[in-house]
Write a structure and sequence with these properties.
It is a single chain. The chain folds into two domains: 7-125, Response regulator (Rossmann fold, 3-Layer(aba) Sandwich), CATH 3.40.50.2300; 133-214, Arc Repressor Mutant, subunit A (Orthogonal Bundle), CATH 1.10.10. 24% of the residues are buried. The two termini are 24 Å apart. It has helices at 15-27, 38-45, 64-72, 91-100, 112-132, 156-166, 171-178, 182-196, 201-214; strands spanning 7-11, 31-35, 52-56, 82-86, 104-107. Helix 6 crosses helix 8 and helix 7 crosses helix 8 (182-196). The protein is of the alpha/beta class.
Length: 216
C-alpha cells in the first residue's frame, strides 16, 4: 500500500532556516514546498492547498500576521493548521498571532522534535475532524436513540462553530474568533443541537468526541 505524504507549506525569508527545516521534515516523510515570501505562498494557495502551513512572523512586505488574515478570510483555507514561527516571545505577540488565526505559536530557536510533535498532532486532529464530517453515525446502543446523521450536511459556518465548540471554546470566545455576535453563536449552537438531537453543549461535545475516538 502506497502512503500519501502530507503536504507542508514552509514560509520564511531566512534561507538557512528554510533549507534546514525543509530537509528535516522531508526526512520525516513529509512533502515540503518552500517560499521565501508570503505573496508567493498566497499565489500557490490558489493553485493547491497544503495539509499544514508553517509561517514566519517577521517578513518584509507581507508579514506572517497579514498572511494569516488574508488566508483565513477565505473559507476554503479555514481548516488548514498553521504554525507561526518567530523570534518574538512576548505575550502580546502570541495573542496577536492567535487572534490572526494561527493554531500554534513557536518561538525561535526551537527543538525540531517539538516542531515535529506539533505537526503530527495538528494533522491528526485535522484528519479526525474531517472524518466526523463525512461518516454517518451508526447507533450501536439500544438505550442511546440517535438518528443516523451525515454531518457533511452541516453548513460551513456550523462546522466551524462545532469544531471550536469541541475544542472547548465558550460562546464569547467563538464569537470573538469568528467576528460575529454572541447571539449568532447561540443560534448556530441551537441548530447543531437540533441536528444532532443532543440537549446541551456538553452532550454535543461528548457525542462528537465519541465518534472521533470510536471512528463511528
Amino acid at each position: 500500500m502506497i502512503m500519501i505524504r502530507k503536504q507542508i507549506m514552509l514560509i520564511d525569508d531566512d534561507i538557512f532556516l528554510l533549507n534546514s527545516v525543509s530537509k528535516y521534515l522531508t526526512s520525516q516523510n513529509f512533502s515540503v514546498s518552500v517560499f521565501n515570501n508570503a505573496q508567493s505562498a498566497l499565489d500557490q494557495l490558489n493553485e493547491k492547498s497544503p495539509d499544514l502551513i508553517i509561517v514566519d512572523i517577521m517578513m518584509s512586505n507581507i508579514d506572517g500576521y497579514q498572511f494569516l488574515i488574508i488566508m483565513r478570510s477565505n473559507k476554503l483555507f479555514y481548516d488548514i493548521p498553521v504554525i507561526c514561527l518567530t523570534a518574538k516571545g512576548m505575550t502580546k505577540d502570541r495573542i496577536k498571532g492567535y487572534d490572526s488565526g494561527c493554531n500554534v505559536y513557536l518561538t525561535k530557536p526551537f527543538d525540531p522534535n517539538e516542531l515535529l510533535s506539533i505537526i503530527r498532532n495538528l494533522l491528526k486532529y485535522k484528519d479526525e475532524m474531517q472524518s466526523i464530517f463525512s461518516i454517518p453515525y451508526k447507533n450501536k446502543h439500544k438505550d442511546f436513540q440517535k438518528p443516523n446523521l451525515v454531518l457533511i450536511d452541516l453548513t460551513v459556518k456550523e462546522k466551524i462553530v462545532l469544531e471550536l465548540l469541541v475544542k472547548g471554546l465558550k460562546n464569547r470566545e467563538i464569537a470573538e474568533k469568528l467576528n460575529i455576535s454572541i447571539r449568532s453563536v447561540e443560534k448556530y449552537v441551537s441548530k447543531l443541537l437540533s441536528k444532532t438531537s443532543t440537549r446541551n453543549r456538553t452532550e454535543l461535545a461528548q457525542f462528537m468526541m465519541k465518534r472521533i475516538n470510536k471512528g463511528e
